[in-house]
Protein: Glutaredoxin domain-containing protein
Organism: Erythroxylum novogranatense
Amino acid sequence: MKKHVVYNRKGVGSFSLLMLLFFLFVNGSKATNSASAFVHNTIYSHKIVIFSKSYCPYCFRAKRIFSELKEEPFVVEVDLRDDGSQIQYVLLDLVGRSTVPQIFVNGKHIGGSDDLKNSVDSGQLQTLLDTV
């Protein structure tokens, strides 16, 4: 007579899920740490940074504004990067927004496209740009 072994599918599934979550946590935190280092290094290594998506009309507007000011921003197209979603999570943690564009001038967060336009109109952007 054959013996039937019955596995507790719930237990095996729970263990597998737990291992998957652990793997994602460990590797996800490495990716997030890497993305965080990239974001911070980028912000503080460049005069003007735009976190953008290549198809976003608000991002086009922000790039156009800087072009009209004869300024050349460092642009990170998050949709074209493998770590783009992690970069957006870092931005959410850093500035409270994960939308694009997110614009930084001399390490200071300006905001999005409308915020950039308002800072141009108020003269605040030129003051920031003139700061060394």
The chain has five helices and four strands.
